[in-house]
Structures are given as structure tokens and as C-alpha cells.
Target: DUF7793 domain-containing protein
Amino acid sequence: MPPQTDNEVARTFLLEEQIVEEVYKPVTIDLAMIKSHIEDSLQAYGRGCWYLSDISLLKSTKREARDYLAQNSIAAGAAILTNSPISKMVGNLFLKFNKPDFPTKLFTDREKALLWIREQIELAKKV
Model:
């Protein structure tokens, strides 16, 4: 059975080789929660996977949690998927103010997000 996690922040599973899908829960994420979530993901998938992060249900993320995630991610990159005005605002705030140190892009279409991830994986192979 492929690795998966389910904690207070999100449910994650290996979608395909090098791509982890995570579906965030309707919570407000604080620093302790994001640290625990990153540790769970590290144990399940290791470093360097690409994440399809669905934040559609996410209520909010506290600033210290966003700061920590931007600088301590185990991801090679992330496509942030949203379908609501609130989650789109959360995603845009994260990208604007936290400037993750890995490729990150906001999407409203799941297939376009996956296509972008696959393109990024191929580009990384050429480097």
C-alpha cells in the first residue's frame, strides 16, 4: 500500500512517483501543527517530492506557520490548488509575503496543476 498520512492538518497520499497530494482540513494552522505535519510527511515520503496541495477547505494559517513552511519545507515544489475566494486569498498571501524557497504556483484547475508539476519534474531532470 502506498504511503499516506492523516493528521489534524491534512490527509496526504502518494498520487504517483514523486507527487504527493495533500488535502488540507478546515482548520486554522498554527506553528506546532505545521511542524507536526511536515514531520509526518517527511517520515512517509522523505524529501524532494512535489506536492499538489489542495487548500480549498483550509480556514487560515497563522503567520509563524506560513513563515516556517516557506523556509522549512521538504518539498521540491508545490502546486497550490484552490477553488474558493478565501482559500485563494490564503494562497496568494502565502506566495506574496512568504516567498517559499522552492517553486510554487497557485491553481484553480487540478489538471493544470498536475501538468505544471510534471513539467517541473522534467525540467529538473535536465539540470
In short: The CA atoms of residues 13 and 24 lie 12 Å apart.
